[in-house]
Each structure stands twice: as C-alpha cells, then as structure tokens.
Amino acid sequence: MRTLLIAAGFAALLTSPLIAAPGDIVATRIAGFREVGAAFKNINDELKSGSPQLYVVQISARQIRDYARQHMGWFPAGSGPRPGVKTAAKAEIWSQAPAFKKAQDGFVAQANAFAGVAGSGDVAKMRVAAKALGGSCATCHRSFRVEDKR
Amino acid sequence: MTRAPRQFVWDLPVRLFHWALVVLIGFSWWSAENYHMDWHRLSGQAVLFLIAFRLIWGVVGSDTARFSHFLRGSRAIRIYLTDKQAPASVGHNPLGGWSVVAMLAVLGTQVVSGLFAVDIDGIESGPLSHLVDFDQGRLASAIHGLCFTLLQVLIALHVLAVLFYLAVRRRNLVGPMVTGSAAAPAPIPVRRAGPLALVIALSLSAALAWWLFAEPAL
C-alpha cells in the first residue's frame, strides 16, 4: 500500500509539469525562439564583417543547436492558438503534424550542420551554412507562424 | 510668334529627387513584402542618399528648393489659408513647405530606424545593426513599421492636396514637377543653383550613403 502511495506520489510529481504545460510552454517557446533570434543575429553580424570573431559564431551556433534540440518539445498538443493566449503559432502545426515535424527536423539538421561548420573555422563555408540555417527558419515560419515582418 | 511666358518653379535636381523617391518608396515597400531584403537594403541606401541630398540642396540649391525660402511663419500660413486674393507663391505654399519638413522628418526616421532594424529571426538586418543588441534592433524594427504607416498617411494627404488644387483651385501642380515650369503672365525671377553647388551636394550625400552601408570593421 505504502509503495503504491509513493508510486502514485511520484507519478503525480512527474505528470504535474505536463498538466501545467500548455500555459507555460507558450512562454517557454517564445523565450526560446527569442534566444535563437538573438544568437542568430550575433552570427549574422559577425559574418557580414570582414574579420568575424569566430568564438562569437561558435558559441552562438552551439546555443542554436541546443535550442533546436529543445524546440522539438515546445509544441505539445493543446498549446496552439486559443482565446486568452498570445501566440503566433498557427493551428496548422497540429492539423498538418507530419509537415511540421519535417520542418522541425530540417531546423535541427541545419543547426547541427552549422555548429559543425562553425567549429571548422572556415568563414566562407559559415556564410553558406548560415544562409541554409536561415532558410530552415523561414520555411517553417512562412507556413506555421503568423507572420509579422516588423 | 512669341512663346507664352513661363514661370520657373523646380530645378532638375528637385524634380529628379521627387520622382526617384516615388519609385523607391514603392520599390522598398514591394521588396520588403516579398522578402527581397537585399534589394530592400539597396533601396534604403538610395533613399538615404536622396534625403541627404535634399537636406543639403535645401541650403545650397535653387531658391524654390531652399528651406529659408519656403519655411514661413504662422502669419503667412494664416494669410494663405484665409485670403483667397493673396498672390500665389512660387514653389511651396506656406503650408506645403511645412509638409515637406514633415515628410523629410518621417522619411529620415524611416531610414535611420532601418539602419538598425533586426527581423524577428535575427536573419535580416540593417547595415548598422551590429551596433545594437537584438532587443534594440527589434525596437528599431517596430519604429520602422510604425513610421511607414505614418509615411503612408502623409503621402495620402500629399496626393489629396494635389488633387484638391487640380479640382477646386484649377491649378495643375504635377506639370511643374515634371517640366520644371508653369505658365504665368508675369514670371518672377528665381535664382538657380550652379553646377558647383550640385557637385558638392551630390558628393557629400553619396559619401554618407556609401559610408553608412560600407562593410563594418567589427
């Protein structure tokens, strides 16, 4: 009986974040994508310079790679647009789940690739890979995010 | 046969400035809406060049281009608005002169905010965005967007005023902006700027436009 209670207690502890998730996960992913944007700005600022600071590119590349891994868990069912929640996530994320998953995988792949290229120190290759990484953002955002170009 | 007397109104630089701006504002809008941000930046650089040129030309240009000529006090504006018999001024009317200032101020804010703007994904940015952080760049971007709405309002007012002149006052303002002159029974002499002023204004504004968009040496 006691074991059962403890197990139930653990189960409750483990699932409570999931139950509390929808509200919090929206804030989590907004904050997370903001960090991705800020990190990508650092990369692009460096790469447009004639003499980029490679360590800035490398640190930012690792940040983006890590956020790309995390972002697979940022869109649980029920965290879409509904009254009272401010989110740019479109309902298509869940209604066209396979296409969205493909776009997410594309982001992870490009983020991994870019982190690899950033580590190599080859600036010309970084510029090409940064374009591809930006492309993976844009592909997903144009289909699955309410666009605000400002 | 004698030619009908013509009143000189706008010199060629002012006219080229005006119509180039019309084209570039349209192109900037279109390129931003369609994700052609390389073109959008080039277009912004050209607009920056034009505004810098116009500001300098407002000091060294022909009389009708000069701020000192067309910026009038509240009394002149009142007379212009109330006295229908008052002689029409050559160039900007007392109210129109201030609308030029408003347009230049909004366009200036538009271009400067664009220099620092950063898009939401940190992908596209203005040429000076490396001088600000992400949040400041996002703020610049918000200003860029708001300012464009303001610019659209000013342009709409401008076009309405031109149409008002055409329909109610029976005066064509577009013609002089194309040909540079208007029919007038007794033309008033207008001092025109020489080539030296033009060369100085062009080189200063071109240097500024090149420098602000040059590759940053971080």
Structural description of this entry:
The complex is a heterodimer of chains A (150) and B (218). The N and C termini of chain A lie far apart (59 Å). In chain A, helix 1 (2-47) crosses helix 5. Chain A has helices spanning 2-47, 54-70, 92-95, 97-120, 123-144. Chain A is an all-alpha fold. Helix content of chain A is 75%, strand content 0%. The relative contact order of chain A is 0.13. Chain A has a single domain (21-144), classed as Four Helix Bundle (Hemerythrin (Met), subunit A). Chain B is mainly alpha-helical and 218 residues long. Chain B has a single domain, classed as Fumarate Reductase Cytochrome B subunit. Chain B contains eight helices and two strands. Chain B has helices spanning 12-33, 37-60, 67-70, 74-82, 94-116, 134-167, 174-179, 195-213, and strands at residues 6-8, 181-183. A two-stranded antiparallel ribbon of chain B has the order 1-2. The longest helix of chain B has 34 residues, at 134-167. The radius of gyration of chain B is 20 Å and the shape is elongated. Chain A binds chain B through residues 34, 36-46, 48-53, 134, 137-138, 141, 148-150, and chain B through 32-33, 35, 118-123, 125, 129-130, 133-135, 137, 141-142, 144-145, 215-218. Chain A: Keywords: Signal. Chain A: This is Cytochrome c.
Question: Which key terms come to mind for this protein?
Answer:
heterodimer; A: 150 residues; mainly alpha; Four Helix Bundle (Hemerythrin (Met), subunit A); 5 helices; B: 218 residues; Fumarate Reductase Cytochrome B subunit; 8 helices
